[in-house]
Amino acid sequence: MNTESVSADAVAAVPETVRVAIAESSASTGADFGYLMRVAERESHFRSAAHAPNSSAAGVFQFNEQTWLHMVKTYGAKYGLAGQAKAIVVNPQTGRHEVPGTALRRSILAERNDPKLSALMAGELAQENRSFLEKRLGRPATEGEVYAAHIFGANGALRLIRASDEQPGQKAAPLLKAAARTNHNLFYEHGSNRSRSAGQVMARLDAIASGRDPIAGRELVATSEDEPVDPPMAVASNTKQVPLPRSRPSDWLSPDAAMVLASN
Q: 179-218 burial by CB neighbour count: b if 16+ within 10 A, else e?
């Protein structure tokens, strides 16, 4: 483990339940463990009960309501949520996921606060987004591109990636107007309204997703399955954050937890 990038205090501060959940998700879904850890740090600071004020985003990976309903509809049966998955219907006119019955809908959405389910769905989403992007780009997707799909939705990320590949100097904000409004520090130069280019935004996302961003975690990024994007979650100014390098599950788990994971 790169101890220069991650302090012992920072590692110890990650709840063991979250570390184990992410390790199990990586093993089950094939999503990169280090990537999932960095997304969890960026989105919620590893807090299972995190909820964005004035937004529907919740849980370790800050799934908004529509994204979570899509994930449960698609993968719920695989993880013991067959009944909930069956109850979710897609409105043919709007394409939105709906649940008949307020109580059931509330119950399904509450599962976002379960770190194990949230991590499993985040792993599945990462793999789903990677497959979507690679089929359309005709090349391997970078971690930053997969992260772009996590926060902007796969279609929004594809617009930004193609612009970065084909015309890296063009302004990024007009490509994702709603995302730019709620993620000013990502789309605009610090302290100004000067729009960053598509190439610059993608370079920043690559740095965040790979653990190379020296200020990763200071300002959270609003997440959505597509535009419009929910507002970012407020974070206390004294929250200590560090960038997370690529690492193995064993670097983050206690000896007992690592042994249990290895035996499964």
A: bbebbebbbbeeeeeebbbbbbbbbbbbbbbbbebeebbe
